[in-house]
Amino acid sequence: EPSPVTDSMWCSIRRCFVISVGVGFLWLFITLKVPREIEDYQNVMTIQGQVHDLPLSMSQEDSSSRGEDLRPLEDWQNLTPKYMKKIQQRRVTWLMVGLSSVPRPDQSSLLYTLLSLFRASSKAEQKRLMVLVHLADSDLTWLRETIVHISSLFGPQILAGQLLLIHAPSDIYPTVEDVKDEAYQGEFYAKQNIDHAFLVSFATKLSDYFLLLEDNAFCAPNFVTHIPWKVNTMRSNPWVLLEFSNMGFLGKLFHSSDLPVLAHFLLLFYKEKPLDRLIPHFRTLLAQKNPILCRPFLFYHRISYFTSNDSQKATIVQKKNPYGPDNPPGAIFTDMKVFDVHFPWEAYTLDESFFWTHNVSAGNHLTVILNHPANLSRVQVLTGTIVDGKYALEKGQVELGYNPEGMPQYCTSFALLGRLLEGQMDQEIFLRSMRYDVSCVRLVVKANQVGGLMIRHIHLWEENAKVAEAAQS
Fold it and tell me: Which residues pair with residue 280 across a beta bridge?
């Protein structure tokens, strides 16, 4: 028997269009009444690690008028559909990217994801792209602040109809008592599944294909071009689901014609399993037995981190594996080409981010300059994709630097640690004269290389840190 949530779900789709109208009017309200909070929306460093410091439209001085300010959100149902007319009449796009977002401790996650989506695609590619964001929480303060941030950064995309924000009515969700299931943490999974059922329902008939993302992701450059190419190569092979990532439900591509069925499926089984475990069942039911993994993967998770005000420095704040790398704080410098998608310092994080460049020349380098000299016991450098090793550095070497001088600092002497083999090097440092007081770790290109280059990780292990961990255990 179908879930009781189904009927209310489909009745609410119409209301969601009206709610989207409210988002549009609220955006206009914000741009007219609130001073522009971020002067240059193209400057990613404005929000990098500092989103929690952004001036919000609702400060302490005007907290007494919260109720009045939030009325546009509460009265969405009474707004006229002028804003939606333009959207409803626009042509169907080739690709709809959909994601559902809820409040997170790191409030920059959604903004980073949107930045990565638009910066990874050219203006021509964006004409084939629409991004749909479901703000899936009923906290009015969070909704308003999120819309303020998004409208400040992505005004042109909103006006062009390339970015849509929706919010589902709270009455489509079952009560907490209906979804309690300790074995599967049913309350969390049920809401997540219903969030995404509403998302894919709204996306029906707005595009030819629908790409499901998460709100803590980043994208490979030109993914909008790569995905159609892959779809064309699959013309002779019927498919239900193409997977451009092997992580959770990130990077899953559907035919938009299958979205109504997917929404029904999620609503029927919303209490049973989390979304990433329901999607494979959906694929199987529609007669695609085996997963189709499309490599190289185009989408990766981004782990929360915070950076200092110095755009060159990245300080990682996250739990470390006791056996994993330490990556002491430092600054990252390079003379390779830098694009507005994957930055040099991303090669030095402890998550799955990476630095992307292309057409490197002999002598180019990526250098980590540590804030304080460190005693290193091991250095690991990984380039290229995980599965097939594409975009690896063909000829390169790793050097350790000493005796820093100047401001900003640079190392005055270097010693060769080792050369990359098939784009990788993982080497322990045995010589005491090399491992102590290391101030720089430098990856050097030894031959010209045409095409893309992915520097995935530079991992450092500190000797003293491991000794301390062993003593504590």
Answer: none
Q: What pLDDT, in 10s, does the model give residues 14-30?
A: 555 545 545 554 554 44
Selection from 106-115, 263-272, 335-344, 435-444 with the highest mean pLDDT = 435-444
- Report how far residue 293's alpha carbon sits from residue 67's, in angstroms, rounded to the nearest whole number: 49
**Token couple for 423:** 């784009």
User: Residue 360 corresponds to which amino acid?
Assistant: V
At residue 50, the pLDDT reads 30
Torsion 251-252-256-259 (CA) sign: negative
Task: Tell me: pLDDT of 200 over 90.
Answer: yes
Does this model's pTM top 0.70? My answer is: no
Q: How many CA atoms are closer than 13 Å to the CA of 244, on its beta-carbon side?
A: 25
Q: For residue 258, which of 199, 200, 194 has the smallest C-alpha distance?
A: 200
Three-state SS letters, the chain = CCCCHHHHHHHHHHHHHHHHHHHHHHHHHHHHHCCCCCCCCCCHHHCCCCHHHCCCCCCCCCHHHHHHHCHHHHCHHHCCCHHHHHHHHCCCEEEEEEEEECCCCCCCHHHHHHHHHHHCCCHHHHCCEEEEEEECCCCHHHHHHHHHHHHHHCHHHHHCCCEEEECCCHHHCCCHHHHCCCCCCHHHHHHHHHHHHHHHHHHCCCEEEEEECCCCEEECCCHHHHHHHHHHHCCCCCCCEEECCCCCCCCEEEEHHHHHHHHHHHHHCCCCCCHHHHHHHHHHHCCCCCCCECCCCCEEECCCCCCCCCCCEECCCCCCCCCCCCCCCEEEEECCCCCCCCCHHHHHCCCCCCEEEEEECCCCEEEEEEEEEECEEEEEEEECCCCCCCCCCCCEEEEEEEEEECCCCEEEEEEEEEECECCEEEEECCCHHHHCCEEEEEEEECCCEEEEEEEEEEEEEEHHHHHHHHHHC
Structural domain boundaries of the chain? 5-299, 303-472
pLDDT of residue 109: 82
What is the pLDDT at residue 13?
55
Which of 3.30.390.50, 3.40.50.720, 2.60.120.260, 3.10.450.50 is the CATH number of 303-472?
2.60.120.260
- Both tokens of 457, joined, read 């990780």
Q: Indicate the range of 50-64, 172-186, 208-222, 349-363 predicted with least confidence.
A: 50-64
Domain spanning 5-299: CATH 2.60.40: no
